[in-house]
C-alpha cells in the first residue's frame, strides 16, 4: 500500500476510535497491527500522527479539508452527544438517589469501620513505599561495595588488572516500578521504554565495575520461569573465583548482543539459560512467581529462539529447571 493510503487508513482508525466515544488510549502497537504495518514503520513514516493517536492533539485537525469525513464525524458527534446526555441524565438521577441514601447512613457507616479501613489502606501503602525504598538503598550499597572492592584489589596501574581475591556480586534489572506502572495503564509502549531504561542502568553499572579490573561475568537470561536468587544460591554459594552475576530479562538475541557489546574486562563472559519442556510447569512457575509480568513478555520468550554461543559468549549453559526452582 502507498504511504498516502496507509496514512489515510491510520487516520481513519484514529478518528473512528475517538469518535466512537471510547475512553481508552490507542497504542502504537494496536494501530500498527490494525493498519498492517510494523511498529518500526510507524515510527519511521507516521510518527507525526502519534499526538493524535495518544489524544494529546484533537482529531479535528485531521478532519479539516476532508468534507466527507468531517460530515461523518459531525453525525457521529451528534449521536454521541445525545447518547451521552441520556446516560448523564440517568447517572444524575441514580446519583441523587444514592447520595440521599448515603447521607442518611453516613455516620453509622463510618462507625462500622470505614475510618479504620481507610487508615489501614494508608498504612499499607506507606509500608510498601518504605520497603521499596529500603530495597533500593540496599542495592545501591551492594553496588558501591562492588566498586570499592574492585578498587582496592586493582592496585596495579596496568590496564584491566586481574582480580586476585574472590568477589561474588550480583546486578539485577529492577522492573518493579515498570510492572506497577503497566498494571495501572496497560500501556506496552511505556512499559518497554521503562524496561529499556532499567536494562541500560544495569549495563552502565557493569561497565563502570569492569573498568576496575578483569573478572568473570555470568549473565542469567531471566525467562520468567525460575528464580534468579535460587540460581545464585545453588551455583555460587561456595565460590572458586571472582564473579559478577547479572540478571538479564531480554528475549531477543539481538538485544542480548547489544547488551554485551563493549563489556571489556568480562573474562570469561558466560551465559546461563533456564529451560523447561513442560508447559504446565512453566505456567505454574509464572503464575506463582511472576504474576506482575505482562503477558506480552511471556509471548516474546515463547517466540524468540534460544541464544547461541555465536552471540558473543565464551561459554553457554542451557540448564533444566523443575517446579519450585
UniProtKB/TrEMBL annotation:
Protein origin, superkingdom: Bacteria
- Descriptive protein name: Uncharacterized protein
Q: What is the lineage of its organism?
A: Bacteria, Pseudomonadati, Pseudomonadota, Gammaproteobacteria, Pseudomonadales
